[in-house]
Write the structure tokens for this entry.
Amino acid sequence: MRLGNDANCFALSEAADGAAQGARVVFGVILGTGVGGGIVVDGKVLTGPNAIAGEWGHSPLPWPRGDERPGALCYCGKHGCIETFLNGAGLGRAYEAIAGRHEEATIIAARAAAGEASARAALARYVDCLSRALASVINLLDPDIIVLGGGLGQIASLYSDVPARWGRYVFSDSVVTKLVPPRWGDSSGVRGAAWLWSEPPVR
């Protein structure tokens, strides 16, 4: 029997025959109720000796601003984790701070696409947080490609708006890392679990 978390399986599926096929270093992201990450190098999942490789959601949000400190309490017991800014509840908090009322992330995204000013402002905050968080991954891992999964990964504007912004935070004169949606969508995690049997993971 082989086991892998959802983000690792997602990243492996997209690296094997999905949106990141042919890329040497892949970072797969889950943006939903939680925030997870998986790393695939040369077609193999990188797990690490502590089995936490890619768990970027429980690192602090990089370059925090005054109104982002100390940040919301995360279920891990710490404040200001990336997950608290980039999960669905994080987008909801950003919207509530601007509009004064609560809405679900899917409704906020739809309203932003329709041109509602408060929703667009909340999504712009989300884009900046995601840009900073992914820039820290690029600075450390320098992946060829980043694939976004999960419910919030379905927000089409992220794929143009985040790369347009993350260059402010990446320690390079140019950024060639690609940001793409998954080829296999919600099925990618299950497909990745099957791919775990193809080759042993890299530690």
Notes: The chain is about 40% helix and 10% strand. The longest strand covers residues 25-31. Residues 6-195 form a domain with the Nucleotidyltransferase; domain 5 fold (CATH 3.30.420.40).
